[in-house]
Specification:
Helix content: under 10%
Largest sheet: 9 strands, antiparallel
Structural class: mainly beta
Radius of gyration: 20 Å
Number of helices: 2
Number of strands: 23
Order of helices and strands: HEEEEEEEEEEEEEEEEEEEEEEEH
Oligomer: single chain
Number of domains: 1
Strand order of the largest sheet: 10-11-12-13-23-19-18-16-17
Strand content: 35-45%
Length: 310
């Protein structure tokens, strides 16, 4: 009788220790692994392309569950695009335009990772990021502009589903700090994803196909992007992007592009908004990565669970 009990015990212990999350840190990034599979890297140091477009505080690379590379950094068509990022074109201190964070101009980000946790099915990152004025900032502009609190939660739900939750809070560090999106009809800015595909993306939500337009489209709280992220992998990963439209100030809708661009639930549009020094501007997003088919009802369930976590 002892042998079956011993085998069962070893099997149970092996199950508990199977495929744990693990963070590995170097000077420029905090990289998360699931077993030996790379999940993503959170860029904490400053990266640049030929001394241009310096940036930090974003995720790249991000990999799907089958190992496909899902994101791009420094793409040829838009060198300023970077993986999974959150930023805006407009940054003002009073009436003075400090720079363009979207284009990585006039600003630098100082990232301090406060805590990481890694378990078998979940992991998390907590960091503080200071938005600092660049060396050529106009006279009178404060050195420290915004304090950003970043929390990223990762959960593995079986072998075919992974959730990445982003909880970001922005607090002004000086009076009169304002942020705004692109100053045109598109009004893009905020949480953004630059996806890496070898063919055009298709989009859908619970109501069916979503067709990209030049300007933002109304598509509710979540949009699924499907495409060929790696032609050598038979099982492809789809990416579902989620937001909280009712919680976003001046929500514009979704800026979607079939290829060579980012995907963005845009806010606050072309009209800049003021950041408070007391009450942070908080916005949350979720990325659902799934391998193989997933019914819209299951996506909707995971979306409702995301909304309840606020």
């Amino acid at each position: 009788m002892r042998l079956p009990i011993l085998v069962l015990g070893l099997t149970f212990i092996g199950y508990l220790n199977a495929q744990p999350f693990e963070f590995r840190r170097d000077l420029d990034a905090l990289t998360l692994y699931y077993g030996e599979q790379l999940c993503f890297a959170y860029q904490t140091g400053t990266l640049a392309y030929a001394d241009a477009y310096p940036r930090s505080n974003y995720l790249h690379p991000v990999y799907g569950l089958g190992g496909a590379l899902l994101t791009q950094d420094f793409p040829e068509d838009h060198r300023h695009h970077r993986g999974v990022f959150w930023t805006w074109h407009q940054l003002f201190a009073g009436d003075v335009r400090v720079g363009d964070p979207w284009l990585c101009e006039g600003i630098r980000w100082e990232v301090k990772v406060l805590e990481t946790q890694a378990r078998r099915k979940r992991a998390s990152i907590e960091a503080i990021v200071y938005w600092m004025a660049g060396p050529d900032a106009p006279q009178g502009v404060p050195d420290t502009l915004v304090r950003e609190a970043v929390r990223i939660y990762i959960r593995q739900k079986g072998q075919d589903v992974r959730l990445l939750d982003f909880d970001i809070q922005l607090t002004a560090m000086a009076p009169g700090i304002r942020i705004g999106g692109s100053e045109d009809k598109k009004g893009y800015g905020g949480f953004s994803v630059r996806l890496n595909t070898t063919n055009p993306l298709t989009f859908s939500n619970g109501n069916g196909t979503v067709t990209p337009q030049t300007t933002a489209v109304e598509a509710g709280g979540w949009v699924r992007a499907s495409g060929n992220f790696n032609a050598l992998l038979p099982e492809q990963t789809s990416v579902v992007m989620m937001c909280e439209p009712e919680e976003l100030p001046q929500f514009q809708g979704w800026i979607l592009r079939k290829q060579n661009s980012m995907q963005n639930p845009a806010f606050p549009g072309a009209m800049a908004i003021k950041l408070s020094q007391q009450e942070p501007l908080r916005f949350r997003n979720r990325m659902l990565l799934h391998r193989g088919p997933m019914k819209d009802k299951k996506v909707e369930l995971l979306y409702r669970q995301f909304l309840r976590k606020r």
